[in-house]
Specification:
By secondary structure, the chain is of the alpha/beta class. The chain has helices at 2-34, 50-57, 75-89, 106-110, 143-154, 180-188, 198-201, 222-233, 256-259, 266-269, 304-307, 406-418, 440-469; strands at residues 63-68, 95-100, 122-127, 130-135, 158-163, 191-196, 210-214, 237-241, 274-276, 280-283, 287-288, 291-297, 313-314, 321-323, 332-338, 345-348, 363-364, 368-375, 385-390.
Length: 470
C-alpha cells in the first residue's frame, strides 16, 4: 500500500510539474506575441502615440536610427529607441536602432561623414538614400523629433501653395492672426508651404499638390479667377477658406467698398455646385466664448478620411453654404461640417447683427459651414478634382488652431486633398506638476472636514472608553 501511495504521489508531481511547464510556455508565448505592457505614467511617457504607431505599422521601407552619444547613454534614450524597434517588429519590422559612442567607435562613426565632438548628441535617421539628422544636444530626444524625421525620409514631399496678394493669412506670421503654427504642422508631415502671387506668376505651378486660398480680404482679378478655374478643371486640388461677411450697424451701415471685402469667390465655386451665403451663421445653443456667432460643433456627415473620430471644432463668424442642383452630373458635393443645433441655429442675413430668426430670409439649421467636392478623372484630365470649402479662415489661425480639434481638422483636410499618408499631430508629453486650485468655499469645506474627522474619532473613542469603564 505504501509503494502504491508513493507511485501516485510521484505521478501527481509529474503531472503537476508538466502542467506548470506548459503554462509557463504559454505565458511566454503570449508575452512575445502580444507584448502586453502597462504605462502607469500620467502623460504616457513610455508609450508611443497612436499616430506614431500608425506610421510604424504602415512603413514600406527600412529605416535605421543611429544615435551618437559620448559615454554611457541615458536610460530614456535606450528605452525610446527600443520602443520604436519593438513596435515596428509587431508589424513588418522595418525599424532598426543602435547607439554608438563616436569617440570609442571612431572608425564606424567616420562612415557617416560627421565629426562628432564630446558635447554633440544626435540621431541619424536613414532610409535608402534619404537622411535626416536630429540634434538633441540642447534638450532630450523626443518621440515627436524621431517620428517627424522618419516621415521626412520615407515620404515624398508635398508642395502646398498659399495664394497671396489679396490680404490672405500669412504662413510666416507668428502673431495671433498668422498661420505659422499650421505651417509648422504641415512641415512636420513633410509638406512644404510656398507663397504664390498669381498676379506675377501668371500660372499655378505644375508641382502644386494643393492650392490654399486662406481668407482673402480683397477681390481676385478676373485673370486670377480664370487661372484657378482652369487649374481645377484639369484635376487640381484646392482648399478655400472664405472669410466672414462684413457687418455694419443701424447707425453705420456698410459702404459700397466695405461690401466688396472678404469676397465669397462664388464666381469660382458656383461652377462646382456651391454657393457661399452673404450671411453669418449663429447657434444659440452650441457656441464658444459666449458669442452665438462662434458655433461649436461635431455634426459631421460620414467622411472617414477627414472627420472620423473628430471631436468638437469651432468657427468664427462662418457663412452658410448652399449646395446647387444645376451642376455637372459628374460633380459630387457633400456637407462636411454643419452646425450642432437644428432649431437654435440659422444663417442670419441681417447685416446689422440683430440676431432674430426670420423665416422669409434666414436659412434654418443645421447649417452647412464646410463642404467637400469630388469629380473623378476622365479623358480630359489625368487626376481627380478635389475641393474643400470652409466659410471661416480664423479657425486655423495661431490664436485658435490649438483649441478643440481645429488643428486635427486642418491637417486631415490637407491629407485628403494631397493623398498624404497618416498625419501626425503630437501631444505634449512634458511632465507637469499638477496643482489643485480650490475656491474659497471649497477650501473652507475641506478645512472643516480635516478638523472635524479627527475630533469625531477622538470623541468616539472617549465615548467607547467610558462605556467600557462603566
Amino acid at each position: 500500500m505504501e509503494m502504491r501511495g508513493n507511485v501516485k504521489s510521484l505521478l501527481f508531481r509529474l503531472f503537476w510539474g508538466a502542467g506548470l511547464f506548459i503554462i509557463l510556455i504559454a505565458i511566454n508565448y503570449l508575452a512575445v506575441k502580444y507584448s502586453l505592457r502597462w504605462d502607469m505614467t500620467n502623460t504616457k511617457q513610455h508609450t508611443l502615440t497612436t499616430e506614431t504607431k500608425n506610421i510604424l505599422k504602415n512603413l514600406k521601407r527600412d529605416v535605421k536610427l543611429t544615435a551618437f552619444y559620448v559615454g554611457i547613454p541615458p536610460k530614456y534614450l535606450e528605452d525610446l529607441l527600443a520602443e520604436y524597434e519593438r513596435r515596428s517588429h509587431l508589424s513588418a519590422g522595418h525599424i532598426t536602432t543602435e547607439i554608438i559612442d563616436p569617440i570609442v567607435q571612431i572608425g564606424y562613426a567616420a562612415q557617416f561623414g560627421n565629426v562628432i565632438h564630446g558635447k554633440e548628441q544626435k540621431v541619424i535617421v536613414q532610409s535608402g538614400k534619404e537622411r535626416k539628422d536630429v540634434d538633441f544636444s540642447e534638450s532630450p530626444l523626443t518621440e515627436e523629433m524621431l517620428t517627424n524625421a522618419i516621415i521626412k525620409v520615407t515620404r515624398p514631399v508635398r508642395k502646398i501653395y498659399f495664394l497671396t496678394g489679396h490680404g490672405e493669412y500669412n504662413t510666416h506670421d507668428q502673431g495671433d492672426n498668422g498661420y505659422s503654427i499650421f505651417d509648422q504642422l504641415l512641415k512636420n508631415n513633410n509638406a512644404t508651404t510656398i507663397p504664390l502671387m498669381l498676379g506675377m506668376k501668371g500660372e499655378i505651378p505644375a508641382d502644386c499638390d494643393v492650392l490654399v486660398i486662406a481668407g482673402p480680404k480683397n477681390p481676385l482679378t478676373e485673370k486670377e479667377e480664370k487661372i484657378i478655374k482652369e487649374y481645377l478643371e484639369k484635376g487640381g486640388e484646392a482648399l478655400f477658406l472664405i472669410e466672414s461677411s462684413p457687418v455694419g450697424t443701424l447707425d453705420q451701415p456698410l459702404s459700397q467698398s466695405d461690401q466688396l471685402k472678404n469676397p465669397s469667390l462664388n464666381s469660382i465655386l458656383n461652377e462646382w455646385g456651391m454657393k457661399v451665403g452673404n450671411d453669418i451663421v449663429v447657434d444659440l445653443e452650441s457656441h464658444v466664448s459666449g458669442d452665438v456667432g462662434c458655433p461649436a460643433t461635431k455634426n459631421y456627415p460620414p467622411h472617414d478620411a477627414i472627420v472620423n473620430n473628430l471631436d468638437y471644432t469651432f468657427f468664427i463668424r462662418p457663412r452658410s453654404i448652399s449646395i446647387l442642383d444645376n451642376r455637372r452630373s459628374t460633380v459630387k458635393v457633400a456637407p462636411l461640417v454643419l452646425t450642432a443645433s437644428s432649431k437654435q441655429s440659422w444663417a442670419e442675413t441681417d447685416k446689422t447683427l440683430q440676431v432674430k430668426f426670420d423665416e422669409l430670409f434666414d436659412i434654418p439649421g443645421p447649417v452647412v459651414i464646410a463642404a467637400v467636392v469630388w469629380e473623378p478623372k476622365d479623358n480630359d484630365k489625368q487626376s481627380d478634382t478635389r475641393i474643400i470649402v470652409f466659410t471661416d479662415a480664423d479657425f486655423l489661425a495661431n490664436n485658435f488652431i490649438n483649441q478643440y480639434n481645429n488643428a486635427q481638422l486642418g491637417l486631415k483636410t490637407i491629407q485628403w486633398l494631397s493623398d498624404m499618408e497618416d498625419t501626425v499631430l503630437m501631444k505634449d508629453k512634458t511632465i507637469k506638476v499638477e496643482r489643485l486650485d480650490l475656491t474659497s468655499q471649497q477650501l473652507k469645506t475641506l478645512t472643516l472636514i480635516l478638523i472635524a474627522m479627527p475630533l469625531l474619532i477622538i470623541v468616539g473613542g472617549i465615548v467607547m472608553w467610558l462605556k467600557q469603564a462603566s
